Amino acid sequence: MYNENSFFYKIPNPHDVITAIPNSRTFPEFLEQRVETYSPAINTFCELVKSNCSSFTLLEEIRRQGRFDAVSRMSLLKIFRRCVCTVLDTEATKKITKVSTASLVSSYGYLFKDIDQLREQFLNISQSEVYALSMLLGEYDDRGQQGYILSDLFFDWFESNFKDKFCIEGPRGAGRDIELSSVFPDFTGSYPCDFIIRDIFTQEVKAIGFARYDSTRGGSQSDDRTGGNSDKVHKAMNYNALTNKNFKIIFLSDGPGLTHRDTWHEACLLDGSWSGNVRASTLKTADVRITEEWLRS
Fold it and tell me: How open is the CA angle 127-130-132, to the nearest 5 degrees?
């Protein structure tokens, strides 16, 4: 089933090669910090509920340009989603210049909780309710941080091992991906990479890479990832066939979610594909998978 170049499928216990990166503090250690972060926004939301005549005007005031700074507005939009209309995606509502409040109200307004009910719930909100709401609002605050930590650790490892031979480019934390067309101008289409590896002397591109940390994964999420990663390989193969430009592909994959059967199966299939030009690796297996010999082959 797996190609002869695959290293991953020979690993007897996938958990042995996983790098454990906690995604946040445990309860109740994070309690005080979340209350401190969100209680001012909850207090502001209470005042807005008191002063607005409808849930529609409440959303309009929250999204009004210049009314709140971006951080405060995002906190208020989180509260609106949790307490007024759960179908309103904050990724959409935060785009105050691109998505009009009128369009949101027109599409989802029939699901908004009535302002009178909001007043009953928020004008006499208890301290315990403030604590509970703060916990909900901060649930995903650390999302993505494990991936940033993984990238940072990998960059440190790579620079320590190859500083006189190769250089690695890309954001260590949050930052814009590197489009392959910015590296190879004759490449057409979108192909965002997390990092690029070059020969330190010739500046020739030796590898492109993708870093993902999965704290948990399975089902449709894993199916989406599988298709996306396979597509990356096929696009690179097609580009190589047209231009004869050779480079390797690194899938730096880590986290407990990687050990899920379907996700691990994908890593085994990817590893060693394209005649060995593709390698999957966790941080723990990088020493044996990401080598100078392979990068120069």
Answer: 110
- The dihedral region occupied by 233, where left means phi > 0, alpha psi between -120 and 50, and beta the remainder, is alpha
Tens digit of each residue's pLDDT (9 = 90 or more) over 202-237: 999 999 999 999 987 644 444 445 568 999 999 999
Tell me the sheet residues that pair with 179: 192
Token look-up 């060693």 returns 272
The encoded tokens of residue 239 equal 């580009």
| pTM score of the predicted model | 0.80
User: Which segments of 163-291 does DSSP mark as H helices, in order?
Assistant: 180-183, 219-243, 261-270, 286-289
What residue type is 193 in one-letter code?
A: C
Strands 195-199 and 278-281, by their bridges, are unpaired
How far apart CA 77 and CA 36 sit, in angstroms, is: 18
Phi and psi dihedrals of 210, rounded to 5?
A: -135, 130
The 8-class DSSP code of residue 64 comes to S
Residue 151 identity: S
